[in-house]
């Protein structure tokens, strides 16, 4: 190829450039005398057409590769997006679960405190009832004792003036000896 051929022959695979060159060649071609038919070099036109035809499959392959690459990039992006969404959903579920665990723990703690309060209140009532029963029994014993003391004093007053009482009073212990002295001293 000559320098002229290099000007008219761009790199193989550039179909658009080849077609532009072909168009320029036809547009700028001179015409035959007394005719409007352009005068072009048939061999140059055929070479350019063959180069364009040869470049078309290469460009189509490149376009297909670019489309496939684009589809792969889109699919990777979609997969990464889905993975990010799934991870976010898992994290949100974990946070919700933790929040629910906290709520359940709080409810359980409140229930334990309530149960303990109820148990303590019940035990206090039982203790109060027990003490009240013992005091009531003690009150009954004290009433009986008071009645016995009163009855004994009344009998004593009835017999204070009798001579038998005077003899028995000498046998009765004095305050120094203490009738209710439980130690016996």
Would you mind describing this structure in some detail?
- The chain is mainly α and 185 residues long.
- It has a domain of 96 residues.
- Helices cover 79% and strands 2% of the residues.
- The protein has 4 helices and 2 strands, in the order ααββαα.
- The chain has a two-stranded antiparallel sheet.
- A hairpin with a 6-residue loop joins strand 1 and strand 2.
- Helix 2 runs antiparallel to helix 3.
- The chain is rod-shaped and about 180 Å long.
- The N terminus is likely disordered.
Secondary structure layout:
Blueprint: H1 3-8, H2 15-28, E1 30-31, E2 38-39, H3 42-159, H4 163-171
Antiparallel strand pairs: 1-2
Notable characteristics:
two-stranded antiparallel ribbon, 79% helix, rod-shaped
Residues in β-strands, percent:
under 5%
N to C succession of SSEs: HHEEHH
> What level of helicity do the residues show?
over 70%
Give the tally of β-strands: 2
Count of DSSP H/I helices: 4
Cα distance spanning the termini: 152 Å
Please give the largest β-sheet. Answer: 2 strands, antiparallel
- How large, in whole angstroms, is the Cα Rg? 63 Å
Summarize the structure.
The chain has 185 residues and is mostly helical. The chain has helices spanning 3-8, 15-28, 42-159, 163-171; strands at residues 30-31, 38-39. It has a domain at 3-98.
């Amino acid at each position: 190829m000559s320098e002229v051929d290099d000007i008219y022959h761009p790199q193989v695979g550039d179909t658009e450039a080849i077609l532009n060159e072909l168009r320029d060649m036809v547009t700028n071609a001179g015409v035959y005398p007394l005719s409007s038919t352009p005068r072009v070099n048939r061999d140059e036109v055929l070479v350019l057409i063959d180069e364009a035809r040869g470049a078309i499959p290469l460009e189509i392959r490149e376009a297909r590769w670019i489309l496939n690459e684009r589809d792969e990039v889109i699919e990777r992006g979609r997969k990464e997006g889905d993975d990010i969404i799934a991870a976010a959903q898992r994290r949100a579920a974990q946070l919700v679960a933790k929040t629910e665990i906290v709520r359940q723990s709080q409810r359980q703690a409140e229930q334990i405190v309530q149960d303990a309060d109820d148990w303590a209140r019940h035990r206090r009532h039982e203790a109060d009832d027990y003490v009240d029963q013992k005091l009531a029994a003690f009150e009954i014993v004290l009433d009986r004792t008071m009645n016995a003391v009163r009855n004994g004093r009344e009998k004593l007053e009835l017999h204070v003036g009798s001579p038998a009482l005077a003899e028995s009073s000498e046998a009765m212990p004095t305050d120094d000896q203490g009738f209710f002295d439980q130690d016996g001293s």
